[in-house]
Amino acid sequence: MKHKLHIAAAFLALLAGLGIISAVLEKRAAVAAAVVEAPQFEVDPLWPKPLPNHWILGMTVGVSVDTQDHIWIVHRTNTYEPTEVYATAKPPAAECCIPAPPVLEFDEEGNLIGHWGGPGASYDWPDSNHGITVDYKGNVWIGGNSRGPDPKGYHDNMVLKFTQSGKFLMQIGHPGKSQGSNDTENLKGPAKLFVDAATDELYVADGYGNHRVIVYDAETGKYKRQWGAYGKKPDDTNLGPYNPDAPPAQQFRNPVHCAELSNDGLLYVCDRPNDRIQVFKKDGTFVKEAFVATKTLGDGSVWDIAFSKDPQQKYIFLADGSNEKIYVLLRDTLEILTSFGDGGRQPGQFYAVHSIAADSKGNLFTTETYRGQRVQKFVYKGLAPVTKKDQGVVWPKSSK
Amino acid sequence: MLRIYRSLLVASLLLLPWSALAHDIPNEVTVRAFVKPEGTHLHLLVRVPLKAMRDINFPERGPGYLDLARVNDVLAGAATLWISDFVEIYEGDIRLSKPKILATCISLPSDRSFVSYEDAYAHVTGPRLSNDTNLFWDQTMLDALFEYPIQSEQSRFSIHPALARLGLRVVTVLRFLPAGGGVRAFEFIGDPGLVRLDPRWHQSAVRFVDLGFFHILDGTDHLLFLLCLVIPFRRLGALIPVVTAFTIAHSVTLIASAYNLAPNFLWFPPLIETLIAISIVYMALENIVGGSSLQRRWMMAFGFGLVHGFGFSFALRESLQFAGSHLLTSLLSFNVGVELGQLLVLVLLVPVLQLLFRYAVAERVGSIILSALVAHTAWHWMLDRGHVLAQFRFEWPALTTALLVNALRWLMLFLILGGFFWILQRAIQRWNDRVPGIGWKAIAGKLRIGVSSIARSALSGDSQEGQRGR
Question: In this predicted complex, what is the ipTM?
Answer without folding.
Answer: 0.77
